[in-house]
Specification:
With 230 residues, this protein is of the alpha/beta class. The chain has seven helices and six strands. Strands 3-4-2-1-5-6 form a six-stranded parallel sheet, sandwiched between helices. Strand 3, helix 4 and strand 4 form a beta-alpha-beta unit. Helix 2 runs parallel beside helix 3 and helix 3 packs parallel to helix 4. The two termini are 25 Å apart. It binds farnesyl diphosphate. The site of farnesyl diphosphate has 18 residues, from helix 1, helix 2 and helix 3.
């Protein structure tokens, strides 16, 4: 089934609360969150999704205890190492959003391998946002524009978009946020200008095909006007 949402962006929130509700440490929630990510990546193509962007680590997440930050970095490495073969066979192309230069060497290495290995794949585009912040992305894009010495009068929205981490990707049609919070939290600020927002009550580790389908069904009922009248 195709719901007309080519690009879905997900804020994977609630891992900590999911763990706390079970009396477990937060990292147990992140591990369960990784399982949810595996499920959602598998479900996405059958629901007509062409681009899936997931917020895995924000520029603000460095403020968390070092143990939790390390655990998240390890989970990224584990995910890439364990899944890249299967994702490649499923024609998934892996992309990364954010400033990877500040990530540990081991993360950068696996990200480069995964991106290069899947670069020619024409299936689902999976963009993992790691050390990503919407404001940081815009500042980095402005730097690139200045470095390119572009004529200020010639700069337009399309050209600017080509300097963002999402260059070449369509804007998200739908942003899904798990666990009830109603914020964008610095995710894809430029790109979500006309995105529909769906807030799911479930914690991210409880996400599966059916929750994703519910979000897409809600999206299908929305009337998108892009500032026009109909
Ligand atoms: C927000 O939940 C979640 C994160 C900051 C990390 C998201 C990470 C994963 C889903 C798994 C790891 C995947 C990769 C690819 C690294 P929270 O911890 O803020 O939850 P809380 O609001 O309930 O405390």
């Amino acid at each position: 089934m195709n719901y007309g949402a080519r690009h879905v962006a997900i804020i994977m929130d609630g891992n900590g609360r999911w763990a706390a509700a079970r009396g477990e440490p937060r990292v147990v929630g992140h591990r369960a969150g990784l399982e949810a990510l595996r499920r959602i990546v598998r479900a996405a193509p059958s629901l007509g999704i062409e681009y899936l962007s997931v917020y895995a680590f924000s520029t603000e997440n460095w403020k968390r205890p070092a143990e939790e930050v390390d655990a998240l970095m390890d989970l990224l490495v584990e995910y890439l190492r364990s899944e890249v073969d299967e994702l490649d066979q499923e024609h998934v192309r892996m992309l990364f959003l954010g400033d990877s230069s500040a990530l540990p060497e081991r993360c950068q290495r696996e990200m480069e391998i995964a991106a290069a290995r899947t670069a020619d794949n024409d299936g689902l585009k999976l963009a993992i946002a790691m050390n990503y912040g919407g404001r940081d992305e815009i500042v980095r894009a402005v730097r690139r524009v200045l470095e390119a010495g572009l004529d200020p009068e010639a700069l337009d929205e399309d050209q600017f978009g080509g300097h963002l981490d999402t260059a070449g990707m369509p804007d998200p049609d739908l942003v899904i946020r798990a666990s009830g919070e109603m914020r964008l939290s610095n995710f894809l600020l430029w790109q979500t200008a006309y995105a529909e927002i769906y807030v799911a009550p479930q914690y991210w580790p409880d996400f599966d095909h059916d929750v994703l389908q519910e979000a897409l069904e809600a999206f299908l009922r929305r009337e998108r006007r892009y500032g026009g009248l109909s």
